[in-house]
Specification:
The protein has helices at about 10-15, 40-45, 70-85, 90-105, 120, 155-160, and strands at about 25, 45-55, 60-70, 105-115, 130-135, 140-145, 145-150, 170-175, 195-200, 205-210. With about 220 residues, it is an alpha+beta fold.
């Protein structure tokens, strides 16, 4: 993807997420009508940022930023990507079809983290990680990832479209199944929220997405 700078409103919106109530969004599927410029707003709506600070030791235990690559986020992403790369309509539509098909199978999160006693502890994909990652629904049900992929060298595209990337953070893609072994949805259509939880001996950090009841 070509290099485009994000506007100041996007940077401010993401920075304020940790200090404001989480905005409500919808898991509703179906067509969307987005333009290239909508990506910044959609990215902000589906991104959460939280930190756990140990005041006794005066240090950050963990700081995490996560983007839920939902149906809506994926749609806006493809529109932005196709526009930036001058991809023709046929190729764009195929790209959109594939990612929306995956959205029915997987709940994906793009995550950047920092803090802890060092990179090994905050490497949530590594064997020495201090953190267990869970997806928790509003009834308290929880599920573990089927994949945690560490991104060692983020692409230029990832740096543009996920501005939480930083030399001081580690980057991951976390994947949860959209359905449980019994065939029921991991996230119920009637769920009021979900939580991406990082928990362990060092503490607990929750990133929460609230869903609107009217448009689910």
């Amino acid at each position: 993807m070509t290099r485009f700078s994000f506007s100041l409103p996007l940077v401010l919106a993401v920075a304020l997420l940790s200090g404001c109530a989480s905005p409500s969004i919808s898991l509703r599927t179906g067509p969307r009508s987005f333009t290239r410029t909508d990506y910044e707003r959609v990215y902000s709506a589906w991104t959460r940022d939280e930190g756990d600070f140990d005041w006794g030791a005066m240090k950050t235990v963990l700081h995490a930023t996560a983007t839920f690559e939902s149906w809506e986020h994926r749609w806006a992403y493809v529109v932005r990507y196709a526009n930036d790369h001058a991809i023709n309509t046929e190729a764009r539509d195929e790209m959109l079809r594939q990612t929306l098909e995956d959205a029915r199978v997987n709940h994906r999160f793009f995550v950047t983290v920092a803090g802890g006693e060092g990179f090994r502890e905050s490497d949530i994909a590594g064997p020495q990680s201090a953190w267990r990652v869970l997806l928790v629904d509003d009834a308290g049900g929880q599920i573990t990832p089927v994949e945690i992929q560490k991104i060692r060298r983020p692409s230029a595209a990832e740096r543009v479209y996920f501005p939480s990337i930083s030399p001081h953070r580690q980057m991951f893609r976390i994947v949860f199944p959209a359905t449980r072994p019994d065939g029921t949805p991991t996230v119920s259509p009637s769920a009021r929220h979900i939580i991406l939880r990082f928990t362990g001996a060092r503490g607990r950090l929750d990133l929460r997405w609230n869903f609107t009841a009217q448009t689910r």
